[in-house]
Amino acid sequence: MSTRFTGRHMAIILILFFGTIIAVNVLMARLASSTFGGIVVENSYVASQEFNTWLDKAEAQQALGWEASTKRTPDDHVAITLKGAPSTASVSAIARHPLGHAPNRPLTFTGDGNGNWVSHEKLPQGRWLLRITAQADGHTWRVEENVP
C-alpha cells in the first residue's frame, strides 16, 4: 500500500524548513545582542577626523621603545613590568571587562624602582583588558594588555 504525496505533506515540509531557519535566526540574534555592548566609539565621524592624529601619536609612542607585560599576583593584584621605561614613570590603568558586563575599574600602582609596578586594588577573577598609561619625562605612553 503506497501513500500519495499530497499538498498537506508539502505544507508540513515547508513549515518545518522555514520554522527551523527562523528559530535559528532568532536564537543567533538574541545571543549576539546579549553579549556585545555595541559601542566601539561614541561618535564615528569625530573618530574619523582624529584618525591621522592618533596614527602620529602611535608612531611617537612606538619610537619610545617601551614594552609592557602584565600578570595577576596570587593575591589578585595586577603586576606590570615595563621594559625600556624610566624607573621614575608613573603608571595607572583602567581594567575593563571585554564584553562590558562589569563596570570599569580604575587601578593605581606603586613601582619598585626596577620597572615593576603592583596595583593597590585587587581585580576580580575573570578576563579583563587593562588600558595602561605610563608617564615619564614629558612622554605619555598607552597600551592595552590582557590580564590572564
Structural class: alpha+beta
Oligomerization state of this entry? single chain
Question: Can you write the helix and strand succession as a string?
Answer: HHEEEEEEE
Tell me the helix content: 25-40%
- Count of helical segments? 2
Main sheet: which strands, in order across? 1-2-5-4-3-6-7
The value of Rg in angstroms is 26 Å
- Number of distinct beta strands: 7
Assign the CATH class of the largest domain.
Answer: Mainly Beta
Spans where pLDDT lies below 50 across 5 or more residues:
none
Assess the beta-strand content as a share of residues.
35-45%
Tell me the name of the CATH homologous superfamily of the largest domain. Answer: Immunoglobulins
Mean pLDDT over all positions: 89
CATH topology of the largest domain: Immunoglobulin-like
What does the largest sheet look like? 7 strands, antiparallel
Distance between the termini: 66 Å
What is the CATH architecture assignment of the largest domain? Answer: Sandwich
Q: Provide the domain count.
A: 2
The rough form would be described as elongated
